[in-house]
Amino acid sequence: MNRHAHEAAAPPASPPTAAATDADTDADRLRDLGYRQELRRSLGILGNISMGFAVVSPVVALYAVSMVGTTVAGPLWVWALPLVLAGQCLVVNVYAELTSQWPLAGGPYQWGRRLLGPAFGWLGGWVWQFAVMFGNTTVAYLAAPWVYALVGAAPTPGGLVAVAVAILCVCMLVNAYGITILRWFVSLGIAAEAVASVGVGLALLLFFREHGFPLFTETLGAEALSGGSTVLGFLAAVAVAGWAFIGFDACVSTAEETKDAGRQVPRAMWWALLSVGAVVILNAMAVALAHPHPEAVVAGEDVDPVTTAVVHAFGGWSDKPFVVVVLVGFLACAMASQGGAARGLFSLARDGVFPFSRQVRKVNRRQAPIGGLVASTLISGGALALGLNATAIGSLIAFGTAATYLPFFLVSLAALVARLRGTWVPSGAVRLGRRGTFLNVLAVAWTAFEVVNVCWPRAILAPPGAPWYQVWAALLGTAAVLGSGLVYLLVRRPHDRLRGDGPDAPPAGVPAPAAARPAEAP
User: Fold this and answer.
1) CA–CA distance from 176 to each of 168, 289, 367 (Å)?
2) What value does the CA radius of gyration of the chain take, rounded to a whole number of Å?
3) Which among 85, 56, 122, 138 is positioned nearest to 399, based on CA atoms?
4) Helix (H/G/I), strand (E/B), else coil: 223
5) Distance (Å, whole) CA 268 – CA 433
6) How does DSSP assign 456-477, residue by residue?
7) For residues 406 and 485, is the Cβ–Cβ distance under 8 A?
8) What's the rounded Cα separation, in Å, for the pair 248 and 53?
9) Euclidean distance between CA atoms 449 and 405, whole angstroms
10) Residue 51: what are its φ and ψ, rounded to 5°?
11) What HEC string does 123-136 produce?
């Protein structure tokens, strides 16, 4: 049989599958934005939601804010939670339009440089990156006491730091095995956390209430810490509650690993924020109503009101299982948060605009950003040295909240300015039109208020006898990161490595479709 006859007899080639077509479309969109597909694109919408849910984490959020919120504002503090949630919904509206058009890892950096130019984008990315990495430090440090509680040992400052370092290393190893393994671990963790959180919260609310709902109109004398002002006490509670709703942007960090990211990541952010918000509000109310002595929390005599309420309701047998659930929640949060930090570093380093970019931008054979993982672990682990001084770690927690809201403000401001200039008209799958501009104005107002509110120096949010620099920690820490970023920007001029400031300008040296590597920023 001659060659032509053989070709005629061969069966026709199979048409491409839907999955292959979607993968090609995602890769083409990424190539249009100036990059080639380097990370494994395997997440569906549920996998992307799990990343955001794990970082927001109802268990971590509740433990981070419940005691402090009650101390500064009494049971009335719970109304700060829906207020902050509503404000963060304004931010998600802006993020949804941006990530729909530019579904890239390192969102604040990538969006800022396209909206207002390379220098603005780089500085926003710098601030966001350090906020996330120091946030990892905080989560690992706060998880360490639960390891001691699980084994029944008494913690020491050095021991807490050692355990926190071990947690960061374990999270790095899980992340290094790729997005699929990370998704399995995180999904398992949030499944246990969500079931336990919802189950415990409903049980406390329905069967173990010690007080009626009018409790949420009372302060129980908490305003005394704010000079007798209920308003000032509530503003402090709003600043504290801000920590509870700051992880939804982790969905953006894995955008380049999510199928049909332009459509699915905006949906995932909404699902992650609203589902966690509902659980946090449910459990905050349930704990307050089931706590036998809320006045003891206000007086600072009970530093763990959540465990007190649970053990009082279910009995002593529930102590260890509850510790396991809390620890699982912290570990899932740490894994997802560390993965987001690594992908943000990867986004900066592949453009050659971060120190040691050549090393930081490396991807391993499992298509995980190993360079970013190592760098973020080193930075987060180095900051744990503050944990050797229990007072100093509070400075890191305060800074982490403030530094996270600053990028929210910068991104919202950049989007609004570009809209009003007419240089950006949303063109992704999510387009809110004139309503989007109005919501954008509200998002700028909300984030500006919360940045000021969180940075405002308050002695009541610091431990008794804390030095002055902890009272001013949020403002000093934010100023230090901004200042170091500005110095690096002026001296090394990393933004000069980026080409143009148009809405779809690819980075310098990364022409589509070849995506050649830019020069390294030393």
Assistant:
1) 12, 43, 9
2) 24
3) 138
4) helix
5) 21
6) S--GGGS-TT--HHHHTHHHHH
7) no
8) 7
9) 10
10) -65, -45
11) HHHHHHHHHHHHHH
* Preceding omega of 457 cis (within 30 degrees of 0): no
List Cβ<8 Å contacts ≥24 apart for 454-458. Answer: 454/239, 454/242, 454/398, 454/401, 454/402, 454/405, 455/402, 456/239, 458/236, 458/239
Tally Cβ neighbours within 10 Å of residue 352.
22
Question: Residues 518, 497: contact at Cβ < 8 Å?
Answer: yes
Structure tokens at 30: 């990424």
- C-alpha 449 chain-centroid distance: 19
The C-alpha atoms of residue 66 and residue 244 are separated, in whole angstroms, by 10
Q: How would DSSP label each residue in 7-73?
A: HHHSPPPPPPPHHHHHHHHHHHHHHHTT----S---B-HHHHHHHHHHHH-HHHHHHHHHHHHHHHH
Q: Can you read off the two tokens belonging to residue 302?
A: 């009970």
Q: What is the pLDDT along the chain (522 residues), one digit of tens a residue?
A: 444 444 334 344 444 555 555 666 888 999 999 999 999 999 999 999 999 888 878 888 787 788 889 999 999 999 999 999 999 999 999 999 999 999 999 999 999 999 999 999 999 999 999 989 988 988 899 899 999 999 989 888 899 999 999 999 999 999 999 888 888 888 888 887 777 788 889 999 999 999 999 999 999 999 999 999 999 999 999 998 988 898 899 999 999 999 999 999 999 999 999 999 999 999 999 999 999 999 999 998 998 899 899 999 998 787 888 888 888 888 999 999 999 999 999 999 999 999 999 999 999 999 999 999 999 999 999 988 877 776 666 666 667 777 789 999 999 999 999 999 999 999 999 999 999 999 999 999 999 999 999 999 988 887 777 788 888 888 988 898 899 999 999 999 998 887 544 444 444 434 333 333 343 343
User: Half-sphere exposure of residue 383, counting CA atoms within 13 Å on the CB side?
Assistant: 26
Size of the chain in residues: 522
Cβ-based neighbours of 262, under 8 Å, separated by 6 or more: 29, 99, 100, 101, 103, 428, 429
Are 155 and 144 in contact by the 8 Å Cβ rule? The answer is yes
Q: Which two tokens stand for residue 211?
A: 């007080």
Nearest to 323 by CA among 158, 153, 166: 153
